[in-house]
Amino acid sequence: MINFHLIKVRKFPTGREVQEVVESANDGGGPVSTALAVAGKFGANVVMLDRIGDDMTGRTILEDFKIYNVHTDGVEVVGGTISGCATILVEAESGKRAIFFERSTAPEYGESDLVRDLITDSKILHINGRHRQALLPAIKSAKKAHTLVSFDGGANRYESSLDEIMAHIDICIVARDFGEKYTGETDLMKACYSIHEKGALIAGVTDGANGSYFVWPDGTEYRCAAYSQDTIVDTTGCGDSFHGAFLYGLTQWGTIDEQGILDLQYTPNEVLEACAKLASAVGALNTRQLGGRSGLPTLDEAKQLANI
């Protein structure tokens, strides 16, 4: 979880200079929290697990979750610590970003800190590599309860130490940079097959305006085109919102077995393709406004663009 202060400028500074801000905004952010914001906005029952500081930034983060119907029962406020924040420069013409961030000083979870009931009562556990010491125990609890594990591998976030965790992921959708480093493949469909062979039931690689690539549980490949936008204001949060929309689709349209378990292997490929289209539409529409969440569409808007 993080709070963003976004500043749109005409051009990125190249040295010492003064220029007037075109536009600015404050917005919530973070890979998992923004994914949950999408799913919560669309009507899914979601809960955030994390720790934040007892500062103004932390209070802002909690208030923002209320807007998107994200439950914060699993968020622990730690006294004497600060919450994560970032300042993002957005170039007006291109929508490109430069990010300057400050990490939260709230300690990450250890195994003994996990709220296991919130994990085992869920259909999907969505992670991105944070709380490293607690991830394998959390995944173990999820697997025991037949809770699917989803992973968001963002650009510039691959570390070889994640490989042990990646071996246990059911839904693995990563950015191009992450996928290339993790698999050694520059052909993105081949990268998907590699991720699938490593154990992921759903393997995906996103490539911005070039669309996304998938291999489904039965080994079938699928290429999802991106939805172009006439004007791109800001690309912050597009990948995170892609994940949230995809997971929302799975929980709503995926096959539920007699025990109430979401079963990917028996979910038709047509449903999985609809999830990908919805995700692509949400990511595209989220470029309309400054910030990672303020531009999020309604579910009807996203379904209309995706024609589903």
Automatic annotation (TrEMBL):
Q: Which keywords fit this entry according to its UniProt record?
A: Kinase, Transferase
Q: Does the keyword Kinase apply?
A: yes
Q: Read off the InterPro entries from this record.
A: Ketohexokinase-related, PfkB_dom, Ribokinase-like
Q: Where is the Carbohydrate kinase PfkB domain?
A: 17-298
A Pfam entry, by short name: PfkB
Instruction: Kindly list the GO molecular function terms attached to this UniProt entry.
Output: kinase activity
Q: What is the name listed in the Swiss-Prot or TrEMBL entry for this protein?
A: Carbohydrate kinase family protein
